[in-house]
Amino acid sequence: MSLDDFKTQENSWLEQKLPGFVGRGLASSPVLVLKLEKILADHVRMSWVPQSITRIWTDRYLVYKRLEQLGPTAETVVNHFLPSSPPTSGHLQMRNMLEAFLPGLLGCIENKILRLTTMREVDESQVGHI
After folding, report:
1. How far apart are CA 70 and CA 74, in angstroms?
2. What's the mean pLDDT in 12-20?
3. pTM higher than 0.70 for the full model?
4. Are the beta carbons of 10 and 17 closer than 8 angstroms?
5. Containing H/E element for 24?
6. Domain of life here (predicted)?
């Protein structure tokens, strides 16, 4: 049986049991589908959406609190050294130089610390063999 056959058979049955309802758009599968769709959409809007928004805001707040516990951001540190007045060309040049310089400096420091740590471990291992 095709969908068109089913629809014809359904409409015929509804006309026998509920005369005039199909013609006025009060009974049929499409009417039922639209009604169920509206009920589901209303339910989602009233329950799921507010709960989700509350959860998102709560999680967002917790993430910001964790970030605050980590200390100031790199941008905050750079801005602390620069004047809070509107950026001038000198201000922008200094900021660009610092932003370009800091990653290299941090990498250099990490390499030095790694080498010192390795040298210390070697020294300590030799002390045990003497």
Report:
1. 11
2. 89
3. no
4. no
5. none
6. Eukaryota
